[in-house]
Amino acid sequence: MFDINKIRSDFPIINEKVYGRPLIYLDNAATTQKPLVVLNKTTEFYKTINSNIHRGVHYLSEQASAAYENARKTVKDFINARSLTEVIFTRSTTESINLLADSFGNTYVREGDEIIITEMEHHSNIVPWQVLCERRGAHLKIIPFDDNGLLLIDKLHDLINIKTKLIAINHVSNALGVVNPVKDIIRMAHQHNIPVLIDGAQSIQHLPVDVQDLDCDFLAFSGHKMYAETGVGILYGKEKWLEAMPPYQTGGGMITSVSFDETKFAGLPQKFEAGTVNYVGAISLAAAIEYLRGIGMKNVFTHEKELLDYTVKQLNGMDDLTIYGNSPNRCGTISFNLNGIHPYDVGMILDKLGIAIRTGNHCTEPVMRHFGIKGTIRASFAVYNTRDEIDVLVDGIKKAREMLL
Amino acid sequence: MFDINKIRSDFPIINEKVYGRPLIYLDNAATTQKPLVVLNKTTEFYKTINSNIHRGVHYLSEQASAAYENARKTVKDFINARSLTEVIFTRSTTESINLLADSFGNTYVREGDEIIITEMEHHSNIVPWQVLCERRGAHLKIIPFDDNGLLLIDKLHDLINIKTKLIAINHVSNALGVVNPVKDIIRMAHQHNIPVLIDGAQSIQHLPVDVQDLDCDFLAFSGHKMYAETGVGILYGKEKWLEAMPPYQTGGGMITSVSFDETKFAGLPQKFEAGTVNYVGAISLAAAIEYLRGIGMKNVFTHEKELLDYTVKQLNGMDDLTIYGNSPNRCGTISFNLNGIHPYDVGMILDKLGIAIRTGNHCTEPVMRHFGIKGTIRASFAVYNTRDEIDVLVDGIKKAREMLL
Amino acid sequence: MKIDEIQFQIIKEFAPLEEWFEKYEKLIDLGKKLPVMDEEYKTEANLMSGCQSSVWITSRLENGRVIFQADSDALIIRGIIAILLKVVNNQPSEDISSMDLYFLDTIGLSSNLSPSRANGLASLVQYIKDCAKEYLYER
Amino acid sequence: MKIDEIQFQIIKEFAPLEEWFEKYEKLIDLGKKLPVMDEEYKTEANLMSGCQSSVWITSRLENGRVIFQADSDALIIRGIIAILLKVVNNQPSEDISSMDLYFLDTIGLSSNLSPSRANGLASLVQYIKDCAKEYLYER
Ligand SMILES: Cc1ncc(COP(=O)(O)O)c(C=O)c1O
Ligand SMILES: Cc1ncc(COP(=O)(O)O)c(C=O)c1O
Question: What is the ipTM of this complex?
Answer without folding.
Answer: 0.95
